[in-house]
Amino acid sequence: MELSALSALSPLDGRYVRKTGALRPILSEAGFMRHRVKVEVAWFKALSHAGFAEIHPFSAATTRFLDALVDNFSVDDAARIKEIETITNHDVKAVEYWIKESIGLRLPPELSKLNRRTVSVDPEITGELQSVAEFIHFACTSEDINNTSHGMMIKAARDEVVLPALHALVGKLRDIAHEHASLPMLARTHGQIASPTTLGKEFANIVSRLQRAAKQVAAVEIMGKMNGAVGNYNAHFAAYPDFDWERFSKDVVEKSLGLTYNEYTIQIEPHDYIAELFDAIARANTILIDLNRDIWSYISLGYFKQVTKAGEVGSSTMPHKVNPIDFENSEGNLGIANALLKHMSEKLPISRWQRDLTDSTVLRNIGIALGYTVLAYDSCLRGLNKLEVNVARITHDLEDAWEVLAEPVQTVMRRFGIENPYEQLKALTRGKGIEKQDLHAFIRSLDLPQAVKKELLKMTPASYTGIASKLAAKI
Question: For the Adenylosuccinate lyase PurB C-terminal domain, which residue ranges apply (predicted)?
Answer without folding.
Answer: 351-465
